Structure formats: C-alpha cells, structure tokens
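Module 6 notes. Inverse folding takes a fixed backbone as the condition and produces residue identities as the prediction. Think of it as a translation problem where the source language is geometry and the target language is the twenty amino acids. Below is one complete input and output pair. Work through it position by position during the lab.
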C-alpha cells in the first residue's frame, strides 16, 4: 500500500471508529497548552494553519508525484477541517498540535508550519485484563492515540518531534486522569526505521499483537505504546 493510500485509510478508520465509539463516556476536556522555546512555538492548531498543515502532510506522505498537486493538498485540508469541526461536537477528545518557528525564518515549510501532530482516542489494540466486581475481565478501553506526526524536512533533528510528543503526553495525561494502566499508543509502518528509532528513543515499546492481529486492519504496522503514569 502506498503511503498516500495509507493516510486516507488511517483517516477513514478513524472516522469509522468515531461513529462506532461515539457513545463512549467523555474523557476530561482538553485544556489548551502551549510551550515556547527560543526557536519554536508549540500550540493548538487554528483554522488558518490548516492549508500549511495539509501541504506539509502531502509533501511528507505523498511519495507519488501524481498525488503531489494542489488538489491533493485541498483534499487533505478538507479532511482536517472536517475533523476540526467534528471535534467540537463529539464527546471524544481530539487535538491538533502545531509547531511554528518563533521568527518564521529558517524553515522552508509552507505558511510557517514546522510540525504537526494529531491526538485522538481509539480502542486499545490489545485486550487489557481488569478486575471488575471480583471477576477478571478483558476490555479494550478507549485510549489516547497519536497520528500524523510530521516535522518539516528543514527542521528535523532539532528536537521538534520530541517536544511535540512530550506535549501530546501532557495532554493525554489530562484526558486519562491518573489511570495507572493508561498508555499512549501509535502505529508506524514496519519499514519506517527513522520513526521507529525516534519513538523507541522516546521510551515507546513495541506491543505484542499476536493475539489481537485479526481484529486490526493494518497488520503491516508496528504498534508502540508508552505508559502515561508509570
Ligand atoms: C520521525 C520524525 C517525526 C522525527 O522528528 P525530529 O524532530 O526530526 O526528531 P527529534 O529531533 O525530536 O529526534 C529525537 C531523537 O530521536 C531519534 N531520531 C529522530 N529521527 C531519527 C531518524 N530519522 N533516525 C534515527 N533516529 C532518529 C534520535 O535519537 C534523536 O536524537 P538526536 O538527534 O540527538 O540523535 C521526523 O523525522 C518526521 O517527520 N519524519 C517523517 C514523517 C514520519 O515518518 N512520521 C512518523 C509517522 S508514524
């Protein structure tokens, strides 16, 4: 599967999941957070950021030249716009984070978007054993999930990705409200060695999906998790 198709696939799966799990009890609402360093500002995305974010996603994930036109960027932007609107009406928490260069100089990224990260929730890809009324049961709780982390090529290896994930962890902790088993998870293409090294360096560990793979649509991926309160 080419990366572009994969992106659409992940998004479609996300939308499907939104429909299926819209009954889930709301997790604590997101409070806006922002961090500034001398070079970059990290904050929640605004509507005006979406064209730049779409271009960054297209340039990163669309390796096929045919898909690198403005129509594709518009399509991605519309998807982002739709999810941003839906965020306001769904009980499931969702956040779009961006990093912008503090002086808007030194990045070739369009509209000053140096990085983007999408944070939502999904059912855990593995069953978790819990004691309930004295009986051990297996559940797949709704947990925070990272998608579409991208740092513009000109700003890589400057700890921007690291800071985006730290911010996502901070937000995810608020959503999960101290639950000791809670973890943040994500999936990476098995051949995306750079991203795998990046996440493992940040303390994410590979999940054993040998008992759950049948339920997952994307078995060509490696799933990684990081406990939030351990
Ligand atoms: C993966 C990605 C987000 C990393 O962002 P970044 O801002 O460059 O990463 P950081 O500077 O925060 O890296 C922190 C550490 O992670 C590791 N790391 C980061 N990128 C790496 C790479 N390509 N190869 C190996 N290790 C890497 C390093 O140990 C690095 O520390 P160091 O620079 O001191 O050695 C970025 O390369 C990217 O956007 N890639 C394309 C999109 C993508 O694959 N996204 C992930 C989809 S799941």
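Target side of the pair, the amino acids:
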């Amino acid at each position: 599967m080419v990366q572009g198709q994969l992106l659409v696939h992940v998004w479609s799966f996300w939308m499907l999941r939104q429909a299926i799990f819209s009954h889930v009890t709301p997790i604590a609402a997101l409070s806006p957070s922002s961090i500034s360093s001398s070079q970059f500002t990290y904050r929640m995305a605004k509507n005006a950021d979406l064209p730049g974010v779409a271009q960054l996603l297209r340039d990163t994930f669309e390796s096929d030249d045919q898909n690198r036109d403005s129509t594709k960027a518009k399509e991605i932007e519309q998807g982002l716009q739709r999810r941003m609107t839906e965020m306001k009406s769904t009980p499931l928490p969702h956040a779009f984070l961006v990093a912008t260069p503090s002086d808007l100089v030194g990045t070739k990224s369009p509209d000053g978007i140096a990085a983007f990260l999408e944070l939502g929730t999904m059912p855990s890809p593995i069953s978790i054993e819990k004691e309930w009324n004295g009986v051990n049961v297996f559940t797949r709780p709704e947990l925070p999930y990272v998608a579409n982390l991208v740092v513009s090529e000109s700003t890589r290896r400057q700890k921007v990705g690291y800071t985006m994930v730290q911010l996502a962890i901070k937000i995810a902790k608020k959503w999960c409200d101290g639950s000791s088993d809670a973890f943040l998870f994500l999936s990476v293409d098995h051949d995306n060695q750079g991203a795998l090294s990046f996440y493992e360096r940040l303390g994410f560990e590979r999940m054993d999906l040998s008992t759950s793979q049948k339920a997952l649509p994307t078995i060509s991926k490696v799933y990684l998790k990081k406990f939030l309160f351990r």
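Reference fact for the lab report: The chain has one domain: 3-18+28-227.
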